[in-house]
Write a structure and sequence with these properties.
Strand content: under 5%
Largest sheet: none
Radius of gyration: 16 Å
Number of strands: 0
Order of helices and strands: HH
Distance between the termini: 15 Å
């Protein structure tokens, strides 16, 4: 079974989201713990990266929908 090329980018992003969530959660927690960020900006960093990943996933799905 051959996977269409337009699915590869979306699948790559979708498969990396769980590890991205874990790494960003750990990193923002450590930055808050070390005093580099306030708690508010740690949460904003976490949410910004996660929302950006989902927007990128949807954007790739919309723009590469008709390409093969």
């Amino acid at each position: 079974m051959k996977i269409p090329k337009n699915w590869l980018a979306a699948m790559g992003i979708a498969m990396s989201i769980p590890s991205t969530i874990l790494v960003i959660a750990w990193l923002s927690m450590k930055l808050v713990e070390w005093g580099y960020l306030s708690k508010f900006w740690g949460v904003m960093l976490f949410l910004g990266v996660i929302i950006n990943s989902f927007v990128l996933l949807v954007w790739n799905g919309i723009t590469k929908k008709d390409r093969s």
